[in-house]
Specification:
single chain; alpha+beta; 6 helices; 3 strands; 20% strand; elongated
C-alpha cells in the first residue's frame, strides 16, 4: 500500500479532498488566481466543499468574490475534478 493512498483515505475521513486536490489548491494557487492576486491572498482551508481564502485587504476580497465561479472552475481544472462548491473570503488584518 502506498503512503499517498493512506493520506487520501485520511483526508476523506477528515472531510477534505485527496492529496492531489490539496496540492492543486495550495501548491498552485498562483496558477489558479494569477500572480498579482496570489500575492494578496492565500488559501487557508479546503473542507466540506468550501474553499476558505484569506486576504489582507478589502479590494482583494472583492476581486476574489467577483471571480468566485471562475476561481472554483480553475481549481477544479487544476485538481482534475470539482473539489469545492463554495468560496469563502476572509479579510485578515496585518500580522
Amino acid at each position: 500500500m502506498r503512503v499517498g493512498d493512506d493520506l487520501d483515505r485520511l483526508a476523506r475521513r477528515l472531510g477534505t479532498p485527496g492529496a492531489a486536490a490539496m496540492r492543486a489548491v495550495f501548491g498552485r494557487w498562483s496558477d489558479v488566481v494569477g500572480p498579482e492576486l496570489a500575492a494578496r491572498s492565500r488559501p487557508l482551508r479546503l473542507t466540506g466543499g468550501t474553499l476558505v481564502v484569506g486576504v489582507g485587504d478589502p479590494t482583494a476580497a472583492t476581486e476574489l468574490r467577483y471571480r468566485g465561479v471562475e476561481i472554483l472552475a480553475r481549481v477544479a481544472e487544476a485538481a482534475g475534478g470539482a473539489v469545492a462548491e463554495r468560496l469563502e473570503v476572509r479579510v485578515r488584518g496585518p500580522r
